[in-house]
Amino acid sequence: MFSPDPDHYTYDEVEPTVEKLFQQFARAGKAGTVLDVGCGNGLLGEALNKAGHSVTGIESHPAAVTGANHRIGEVIEADLTVMPDTLSGRQFDYLLFADVLEHTADPLAVLTDYGSSLTPDGRLVISLPNIAVWDNRLRLLFGSFNYSDSGVMDRTHLRFFTFATARRLVETAGFEIEQVTLTPGIVRAFLPLIKWMMGNSGDGGALMNSPAYKFYAKYILPGERLVASLLKGFFGFRIVIVARRTGD
Length: 248
Known about the structure:
Elements: H1 11-28, E1 33-37, H2 43-50, E2 54-59, H3 62-69, E3 74-77, E4 92-98, H4 107-115, E5 118-129, H5 134-141, H6 163-172, E6 175-184, H7 191-197, H8 204-208, H9 211-230, H10 232-235, E7 236-245
Parallel strand pairs: 1-2, 1-4, 2-3, 4-5
Antiparallel strand pairs: 5-7, 6-7
């Protein structure tokens, strides 16, 4: 996942994205070639490799490229906002943008440019943060529009999306949407408080391996997903879209 700083995201920020996007590839039922645009340290690419996919990553941050080289087979160090010349003529079964497009000045141009690298029966998989998640709406109601180090209000985000505008972006770029899913953002809003109560200010790995998180994942998360799926625009934290090229 793209970041100007490879250490920008904490473990608890990255892991839910990896899990949710990996599910989309698992549902596809077949292994294939993947172009992971903005692959970051290669966490998701590594998971896809282990599942039998062949992953090519594009990343601009040198330190992140170093990390990705240890996890996936091919990493291209380049400005990811323009498809590298080295990919000219190559096509992939999956085109992946995992929390990337919101960091670009012109997401539509980026998505359109890379669209030619998808095979005729290939699939686009993208994830974007939902600016209209409930806690952000509440903050805005009280006049707060402050940036943070991660999350929806990440200070490196140049564009913001709702479920409606994310769909419009994908369709305008020449894709037909097959599925829209999400990661929930109900409990997530209380994450800073939870970490403070646990005396855990920054070690997301320790948090996610804690008994409290395991209890949440087993007994609370399923219900949270159900509620969020009924009110996507309000309780969805991350938008996940699967699409194919129009006319294919």
